Structures are given as C-alpha cells and as structure tokens.
C-alpha cells in the first residue's frame, strides 16, 4: 500500500500520524509513505529524522476575525491544493490520512477531488477548524474521545478510534523507565511535565511546592522543566534558602518518555490530547492543568472528560500555585483507594488498539476504492 500522511504545526498532530505509519508498516513492511507538512511546523525536524520521504507546502491558517491576511491565506490554500494534486498524482497513494493542522486542508481536499480515499483523525474533544472543514469531504472521520462523534454532523462516516499514540506507548517497559531514572523498581513516582519546551505556570507552581515534598519521603518526584526553563529552574533551586530534597529529580527533557511514563504512579501535566492518550493507555492517574492559550479552550474540555470519568483532577491555571498543586498530589498519593480507582478509570478510557483500528479502516477504504476502479462494486 502507498500512503500519504499529512499533519503539522505541533507534535500533537505529527506523532499520531507517525503512530499510524508505524502500525501500517508493522502490518505490511513494504508499505510506502509520503509525509506532506508545512514549511514552518515541527514536522520539519521530527519527520525527516524518521527517514520518511517528506515534502512541504507553504500554508497558513485563517484568522478568526476579518483580516486582509485571510485573502493571502485563501490564495495559499488554492496554490496548496494545486501543489498537493501534483504530489498525489506523482506518488499515486492508495489512501491519504490527515491528523490536523492547516497543512491538512489542501492535501486532503486535493485527494478528495482526485477521488483518493481519505481519513482524518481529530485528537481533541473540540474539533479544529481544518478538520471541521474537511469532514464533509472525507470518507471517514476518526475521533479520539468517545461521545464526540456528533461534532461532525456533515461527515459521511464517523468512528471512535482513540488516539494512535496510545498504541505506541502501551507496551512501554516500566522496568526500563526505573532504570533510566536510576530508581529501584516499584518506587512511587510523581512525574511533573509541561511539554518539550515546558509550561511557565507549571514550573512556577512546582518550584513553590518543592519545600513541601519532604513530607512525602517515600515518593520520588521527577520534575521535567522543559528545555526553555531548565537553567532558570536549576538556578532557583541552587539559590533557595532550603536544601533541595533528595527525592527530587530535575530534568530538562525526557528522550524516552513512554518508559518513564510506564514507571510513573501519578502524572502532573497539561491536557494535550496525544499525551492524555498515552497516560490513559497506561492507566495512570493524572493531575491536569489545561493550557488556557489554545484554540476553543480545547485542553480544558479534554481534561474535563477525564475528570468526569474519575481518572483525573483538574486545576485551572488561574487556581494553580504551589499549595493547590501539592494538595492535589498529596490527596492522590496518600489515598491508595482513590489512586487505584483513578488508575482503573484511566485504563478504561485508554484505547491501546487505536492505531490498529485506524489501520484496519484505512485498508478497508483502499480495498473498496480498488474494487470500484475495477468495476467490482
């Protein structure tokens, strides 16, 4: 099978696409891929590192208010459709997959016009603008959160698939996570992470609560500052009037996050959809601080979905501080019944077969399209 993947801007769009590719490759090693990304997104560094063929389009998103820039965006979209059509006609894919971001628009729309089977995947509980637009043209819309299927009323087919990143991390080795952290197996671990570049609000709250963690000496705290904030956090700890507790591990970044996640007892993080898919795939309780700086406040909606099912505690950023964060962490870590119940609810929300479900749907679309071309259907 020949497959075009498109998704860009943030890791939340890119990693699900790569997880789908990984599953398709595992099923059929001779599968060929082309990834089409934007010129400015993280895909420009992440995708080439995989060795996958990579092409880019010059595309930007619409402003939500009236703006002359939107005229330029329309022109870029039309040029993007033309460029995408040329790429697709040359590569001749059996199916095209879009996982979000502006670059998906022209690629998936061009595939629709060329009658190539298409699928889009929506990671968040509130769909992005691009996926809303594309939903009326594609063969299948796959959603990460069960119950959000009605967000796409004009779609031909909507299926609950979960997020394919869940499949990637589900088999992560907890023992290896403990080894990477230099900790004995079964050590209770609280992982505090704000993403690859970090989250200022989470960092500030974590630094405020550091003096309190000595009250939980049997719990090890792994504090991932993000590369942007590491030096500042290290300097704050060095200049503090108290000694940094021995049960605190401060890192700028974690290369092998799935293994560290698998070793974690509780996660404190933002509420990005892909990361939540990983957390629930492993059945980990969470304290979630959704970012308020995202479109449609979708991270809070993501977080509330876990909270309503008993898998997470949500702290809004305006309510976040060292005291509120420590109180939430302590409540979970000191109550084994609560922690076990949250872990069970998290695992029930997890969809570890997500990539398999999506790969199966893609093969069905490709086979049906081939049958139609041959006149069988």
Structure characterization notes:
With 377 residues, the protein is of the alpha/beta class. It has two domains: 2-163 and 352-373, 3-Layer(aba) Sandwich (Rossmann fold), CATH 3.40.50.2000; 169-349, 3-Layer(aba) Sandwich (Rossmann fold), CATH 3.40.50.2000. It contains 15 helices and 13 strands. It has helices at residues 11-27, 43-46, 69-91, 104-113, 129-134, 165-170, 174-181, 200-209, 230-239, 257-262, 273-281, 298-308, 322-333, 336-349, 354-373, and strands at 2-6, 32-38, 53-57, 95-98, 118-122, 140-143, 158-160, 189-193, 220-224, 248-251, 266-269, 286-288, 312-314. The strands form two sheets. The chain has a seven-stranded parallel β-sheet, sandwiched between helices. A six-stranded parallel β-sheet has the order 10-9-8-11-12-13, sandwiched between helices. The longest helix has 23 residues, at 69-91. 47% of the residues are buried. InterPro entries: GlcNAc_MurG, Glyco_trans_28_C, GlycoTrans_28_N. Pathway: Cell wall biogenesis; peptidoglycan biosynthesis. This is UDP-N-acetylglucosamine--N-acetylmuramyl-(pentapeptide) pyrophosphoryl-undecaprenol N-acetylglucosamine transferase.
